[in-house]
Amino acid sequence: MDGKDACGAKAVDEIVLKNAFVKMFNGIYENKQSFIKTLTENIETIILLKPDIKETESLDNRIEELKNELKRLIRFQVNNSVDAEVYNEEYKSISGELEEVRKKRLEYERVIESKDGLKQRFDQILETINSRDSLLAEFDEEIFNALVEKIEILTPAHFVFELTSGMRVEEFEE
Predict the structure, then answer these.
(1) pLDDT exceeds 90 at position 67
(2) pTM value?
(3) 138-155 pLDDT, tens digit each
(4) CA distances from 27 to 24, 30, 44, 126 (A)
(5) Which of 132, 128, 168, 130 is nearest to 149 (CA)?
(6) Alpha carbon distance 19, 31 (integer Å)
(7) How far is it, in rounded angstroms, from Cα 110 to Cα 106?
(8) Rama region for 37: left / alpha / beta (φ>0; ψ in -120 to 50; rest)
(9) Where are the chain's structural domains?
């Protein structure tokens, strides 16, 4: 921790920053039940926003159907010498839909991976907080690294800790 914000513009005493982290962590720890409830609600919301397994299965099935339609079309063209214009139109139509369905399926996969990653970060925060049996007496780098994604320095004594879950916690240091 070098005591600078993302731009490196505002130098802050490292001890002040460490003390602010200890104070922020202890505030979370003292209100652990409320904090855990908020995190849990956030996790549940994220899980609800994930594409339904039935939706992804439906897309997978449609991809297979379209691939089979293309194969049938190609076989039919080879065996029955269909008019080239009719064949090209049909091929373009099926392959276009296949491309669209594949894009949608890929987007679902990205959403699922993103939500799973966020859930893992939530779980890590909960595990870190629950593994403690007391307040922090001094700065703990391991806990800091497990919880904090970045620090926004508003003034040399006013910070916003952004946790790995995306949650932001404001802290003032006297």
Answers:
(1) yes
(2) 0.61
(3) 999 999 999 999 999 888
(4) 5, 5, 24, 15
(5) 168
(6) 18
(7) 6
(8) alpha
(9) 14-172
Structure tokens at 69: 């339609």
Q: Quick check: 77 and 69 in contact, CB under 8 A? A: no
Instruction: Tell how strand 148-155 and strand 168-172 pair up.
Output: unpaired
Residue partners of 63: CB distance under 8 A and separation at least 6: 98, 101, 102, 105
H or E segment and range at residue 154: strand 148-155
115, 46 contact by CB (below 8 A): yes
Interatomic CA distance for residues 54 and 21, integer angstroms:
43
Per the structure block, which two tokens stand in for 150?
């970045």
Of 80, 79, 104, 82, the closest CA to residue 91 belongs to: 82
> Among residues 160, 159, 164, which one has the least CA distance to residue 143?
164
Distance between CA atoms of residues 90 and 65, nearest Å: 15
